[in-house]
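Re: export button greyed out
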Amino acid sequence: MVAEVEAMYAETRFETGLAAMSPAVRAAMGKVERHRLVPALQVALAYRNHPLPIGSGQTISQPYIVAISTDLLQIDSNSVVLEVGTGSGYQAAVLAEIVAKVFSIEIISSLGKEAEERLKNLGYRNIEVRIGDGYAGWPEKAPFDGIVVTAAAPRIPPALVAQLKPGGRMVIPVGGDGFIQYLKLVTKRADGGVDERDIIPVRFVPLVPGPR
Ligand code: SAH
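Workaround output, generated via the alternate export path:
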């Protein structure tokens, strides 16, 4: 699987600006056993470079997307990151291999609880999962070095920008359900403003509007 992901990096290097997986991301992708995070029915398909259904109408992203999202954040072992959309817990596990602490929010209680249990059983002690609406972020734990949103938002949620450190980066699919979505890289400047860059077209499940 890592080799397939590497090959996609090479194909998309002009769009993403990433010539190859960084060593830290490659190590994390090699280490996290995706078959231990997907539903039993999907285990045989876990090492293909494909998205997979995880129940409740949700999907776990294709490994390539997980890898470039993680790479674009430019995080390291000191980083504290927020994930919106825990899903299976796979992206959280990949992040947790690299950073000091991962906070992850899931709106569907059953998915979030199962992922939390799964990640605990896999031995992760640096991931905290909360059930709630990630549109509002996790203000008590902010600011974050990186934020990754794994469901598509019609626009960049202002609360998430507010919870990024200056110099921090957010990767988020932006675009309505059924419309073209772009994986965007949002960088917060020292003056509090943001720079945005469209990376590649993607298709994510929508960020569900909770009470807001
Ligand atoms: N990162 C996940 C993939 C998640 S799919 C993984 O690695 O498996 C997107 C997830 O976002 C779904 O589980 C969905 O329930 C969740 N989601 C959708 N809207 C949300 C919201 N407003 N807040 C938090 N989670 C949300």
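Residues 54, 58-61, 84-85, 87-88, 90-91, 105-108, 111, 133-135, 150-151, 205, 207-208, 210 surround S-adenosyl-L-homocysteine (CB under 6 Å). The button fix ships in the next patch.
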